[in-house]
Amino acid sequence: MPKIGAHVSAAVSLDLSFKRAEEIGAECTQIFISPPQQWAKTLHSETEIQTYREQAKKTRIGPNFIHGVYLINLASGKPELVQKSIDWLIYSQEMAEKLGAEGTIFHIGSAGSRGQEEAIKQVIKAISQILEHSQTNLILETSAGAGNTIGDTFQELGQIIKGVGESRVKICLDTQHIFASGYDIRTKEGLDKVVGEFDKEIGLDKLVAVHANDSKTELGSHKDRHENIGEGLIGKEAFRDILNHPTFKDLPFILEVPGFTNSGSDQDNIKILKSLLSTS
Ligand SMILES: [Zn+2]
């Protein structure tokens, strides 16, 4: 059965993310290891790292992921921005290893006014560089496709993965982002078609996590706007199909929703996803 979890706060001390996960019934987590709007590389002490590992073991919550800061852009035309992104991701990958986390999930970034092919070549080079300096999985997130974003089509992600040619490059599928990119997952037939296309262009063996988010904006809107499960345009029934589809049966589902009281991913959203799981 899929594990149902959420993005949880790791503020003050990383290990507190497990306490917060337990409070809402999350079975797996995603955290920030530094403020997401900054380039800071927060230093976490050996004691903090040790406590995190102990809590992961004790609570049996996992798999656990790190989410990259929002400033990352491996496709940018500005070399210093690309270098900062590479450096931060190397830091994050080192932390993932120390924490025993699965790896870093991040948005590749936007090519701006540059040509797609040129940007993709640069992304491949940057990812190879990051992998040279780390051991864990590097996880590319499907993007909503605003502006000239890289990673909004399975074809593009497949091209990058093939270009890097390293088994540690994985994919996190965000239901809201792919919906905004035009992948219609609202019906069973639609879902089968999307899964088939993912397999053809990327390979289902690359899929390691799902960001489970409903959508505030319509199919093909190219807008990154998450909604609580059942309150958006994807809808509860579609999530029932996704959760019970054989493709997703062993995957962690991570909520990144506003929450019913606007306090972030909450117990109610987790309960909804769990209730949709078929127990037969
Ligand atoms: Zn996401």
UniProtKB/TrEMBL annotation:
Binding site for Zn(2+) 2: 141, 174, 211, 256
Catalytic activity of the protein: Endonucleolytic cleavage to 5'-phosphooligonucleotide end-products
Function description: Endonuclease IV plays a role in DNA repair. It cleaves phosphodiester bonds at apurinic or apyrimidinic (AP) sites, generating a 3'-hydroxyl group and a 5'-terminal sugar phosphate.
UniProt gene name: nfo
Cofactor or coenzyme needed: Zn(2+)
EC number: 3.1.21.2
Family: Belongs to the AP endonuclease 2 family.
InterPro entries: AP_endonuc_2 (IPR001719), AP_endonuc_F2_Zn_BS (IPR018246), Xyl_isomerase-like_sf (IPR036237), Xyl_isomerase-like_TIM-brl (IPR013022)
Xylose isomerase-like TIM barrel domain residues: 18-261
Protein name per its UniProtKB record: Probable endonuclease 4
UniProt cross-references to PANTHER family, sorted A to Z: APURINIC-APYRIMIDINIC ENDONUCLEASE, ENDONUCLEASE IV ENDODEOXYRIBONUCLEASE IV
Lineage of producing organism: Bacteria, Candidatus Daviesiibacteriota
Source domain of life: Bacteria
Sequence positions that bind Zn(2+) 1: 67, 107, 141
CDD domains: AP2Ec
Key word DNA damage present: yes
Cross-referenced NCBIfam families: nfo
Any one Gene Ontology BP term: base-excision repair
UniProt keyword annotation of Nucleotide-binding present: no
Keywords: DNA damage, DNA repair, Endonuclease, Hydrolase, Metal-binding, Nuclease, Zinc
Molecular function GO terms recorded: deoxyribonuclease IV (phage-T4-induced) activity; DNA binding; DNA-(apurinic or apyrimidinic site) endonuclease activity; phosphoric diester hydrolase activity; zinc ion binding
Binding annotation for Zn(2+) 3: 177, 224, 226
Manner of cofactor binding, per the entry note: Binds 3 Zn(2+) ions.
